[in-house]
Amino acid sequence: MTTRGQRQCGSDVILIMATRAMLLKRAAVFSPSIQHFLHVRCVSTTGCTSQKDSWLNKLLVRKIEPTKESHSRMLSDKEVIFELQTHNLKPGTGEQYLKNYEEYVKGVTDKFADKAYHPELQGSWTVGVGDQDQCLHLWKYAGGYGAIDAANDMYATDPDLSKLIQDRNPFLRQRSNQFLLPFSFWPPVSPREGGNIYEIRSYFLKPGTMIEWGNNWSRAIHFRQANNEAFGGFFSQVGRLYNVHHIWCYSSLEARKEARENAWRHPGWDEVVAYTVPLIREMHARILVPNSISPAQ
Hints:
The chain has 297 residues and is an alpha+beta fold. The protein has helices spanning 4-27, 32-41, 55-59, 71-75, 94-111, 144-157, 159-168, 210-220, 253-263, 269-276, and strands at residues 80-89, 120-129, 134-142, 172-182, 197-205, 230-238, 243-250, 280-290.
């Protein structure tokens, strides 16, 4: 005859095993080191654990406490907004498209030269690995949404810029954009000298988990600074929400491999991964090649 305590223990064991199986399945898309971490940390099924600080509780998504401030204010302390433009091109039109976009960048620079709210191109890339026939452009607006409103008025009313945008449309299959805020704990975006590739890792989080993501990555970013590889970290404000973009800069694919492997040698990196993996609904990575107009080379 089983006691109530034994039945509770059995239920806990089933929950632990089911959760462990789910986490191992999710970890399959990551490096073997995460899977090893999960195997090593698994608890014995011969007994139940009731400790609140057990590894299982750490891996589960913890409750987010109510706050009196939005996560945008808590995670970003800058009155700066970034726009990430994503343009999907018709195959074979890349050269014409980039020529048009170069003229557009020059036009924006000239038209806004005497404006306090002038947009600044921070990076322009063509996807090398990932979504083919795709270009990404990262613009910076100092002055908040007021600067964006003023810039949009200029884009819509200036005949030269309007014509360049119209001339670009035949080269496009699809386009989208997002307004992003930079994480305050990431290094500021800055130009890079030539010879680099970039990686943009895009994460789509479960609603309500942005603060926890930021808290973990405020520690994790220190593990990825050895070679100045952190280019920019952002979270979405307009467009697809709960979307995080991390952009990394490497000298080569081999350097990328070494940098990512080195992160696992830092004590604490494995815990950050274990805490943040359950927050993710979807993720993907693209390797980016700088365009000639890009300040980030």
